[in-house]
Amino acid sequence: MSQHTSEPTRTRGRHRVFLGYAPGVGKTFAMLVESRLRIGRGEDVVVGHLGPHTRAATRKVADRFEWIAPQMVAYRGIQFPELDIEAVIARCPEWVIVDELAHTNAPGTHHEKRWQSVEEILDAGIGVLSTLNVQHIESLNDYVYQVSGVRVAETVPDKVINGAELVVVDAEPDELLARVRRGQVVPRDEVGQALSHFFRKPTLVALRERALAFGAAASDDRRQPGDPL
């Protein structure tokens, strides 16, 4: 009688999402700070993607990491840097940093959405540290439109968020507005439009409350036993 030896079941990677209520609250910076702590205790963390908007102080921290070169995707004569899934899986770190979870990939990329790319990496047993604003959560799309007047086109299914560990990154609305006015969140020539549209204080207050409530509702058992982060 022949014996059949099955391959061991691969453990799915952990997904930690740094959730904010608006651009500029400090999600990416918080993600990088945690990543430095992880490296300090011997964990293997690399950068798979950081958004081009990343601020100077954040970029200074990010430059100290090992980076996975992006996959360059040509579309209409322009080269777009996208997350290289195959390179990440081949490198096989414990954790990979993937900014902007709701991003739509350039046509010609293996997956249409970045969250789908992240799911493939998680299935390969690699942990992912990512960022997301509350307005990109699919079930909150109508609510965000009601409070902001903005219909967000890029959303992430709730099932993706429900399967992740949430880290809520918060900032006082007045402090965020000060950052916007200083040109730290949007280009200086777009500050006036931003302050009169999405970055109105009542909108930010409402979105902040929803982000905090969403984070509070996340089950505590998503954190793995013995993990201090």
Report a brief summary of the structure.
The chain is α/β, with parallel strands linked by helices and 229 residues long. 36% of the residues lie in helices and 17% in strands.
- Taking all residues together, what is the mean pLDDT? 90
Largest sheet: 6 strands, parallel
Strand segment tally: 8
- Highest CATH level, the class: Alpha Beta
N-to-C SSE string, H for helix and E for strand = EHEHEEEHEHEHHEHHH
Walk me through the structure.
- This protein is of the alpha/beta class and 229 residues long.
- It has one domain (15-221): Rossmann fold, CATH 3.40.50.300.
- The protein has helices at 27-40, 56-62, 85-91, 114-123, 141-148, 158-162, 173-181, 191-196, 201-217, and strands at 15-20, 45-49, 66-67, 71-75, 78-82, 95-98, 127-133, 165-168.
- The strands form 2 sheets. A 6-stranded parallel β-sheet has the order 3-2-6-7-1-8, with helices on both faces.
- Helix 4 links the parallel strand 6 (95-98) and strand 7.
- It is globular and about 50 Å long.
What order do the helices and strands come in, and which of them pair?
Elements: E1 15-20, H1 27-40, E2 45-49, H2 56-62, E3 66-67, E4 71-75, E5 78-82, H3 85-91, E6 95-98, H4 114-123, E7 127-133, H5 141-148, H6 158-162, E8 165-168, H7 173-181, H8 191-196, H9 201-217
Parallel strand pairs: 1-7, 1-8, 2-3, 2-6, 6-7
Antiparallel strand pairs: 4-5
Helix pairs in contact: 1-2
Notable characteristics:
Rossmann fold; about 15% strand; 9 helices; two-stranded antiparallel sheet; alpha/beta; single chain; six-stranded parallel β-sheet; about 230 residues; globular
